[in-house]
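Annual report, structural modelling task.

Input specification for the S-adenosylmethionine complex:
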Amino acid sequence: MSRPWYEQLEQGVRSGEVPFQLSHGRELYSYMDEHAEFDALFASAMDCVEALTGDSFATDFDWGRFDRIIDVGGSKGSKSLAILKRYSHLTALVFDRNQVIQAAATNWAGKESPDLLSRLTYQAGNMLELVPAAKDDKDIYLLSAVLHSMRDGDCIKVLRNLAIASAGTGARTGDGIGNAGFEDRFFHRCFRHADVHGYPRQGKNAY
Ligand SMILES: C[S@@+](CC[C@H](N)C(=O)[O-])C[C@H]1O[C@@H](n2cnc3c(N)ncnc32)[C@H](O)[C@@H]1O
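The model returned the following structure:
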């Protein structure tokens, strides 16, 4: 996955081409759909992000005002679980690509309590086509480390789908790529202009 940073980063920055595609011949998630082991490795890495970023996403926001998190691009749901542990009335719906969701559904059995897992559900799908519908203003959409790695056009598709799915409900949306300290120390200094895909973010599109 990190090959583009070393082999194609300069060409990507100079030309605007996507380094991951130059190295691997296709877009990241399309590549992962065809390489299940790589996809599983990536999803496991997502379970460990808190070790670098801390848990302020769970502690520094009042999730207790809501009844349900709709965790769009939530991978196996580790962030949702961390939040559910702090708020016993909350439930979460984790939405991700089919291959990730198939593995996620059995991933936590025996590792987390049945009571906790009974509040976590999954739905497979493509957020570029639709996202799960909100019911009311007690729903909140969580997009953690999702939009930052998408092309601008794909971000617009996802935001449109969120607008459609939440229309008239009053549901909220929260977006982030990590807590402020993490962004300062890590993303913004190292990967500001090229993330794992290597999409250049320059000029008015810079983070
Ligand atoms: C960088 S990971 C972030 C995972 C998690 N939200 C977190 O913060 O740890 C991005 C996630 O978005 C999912 N994803 C990317 N494109 C998607 C799409 N078109 N539809 C559904 N999920 C998608 C990936 O499978 C991956 O799990």
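The chain has one domain: 3-205.
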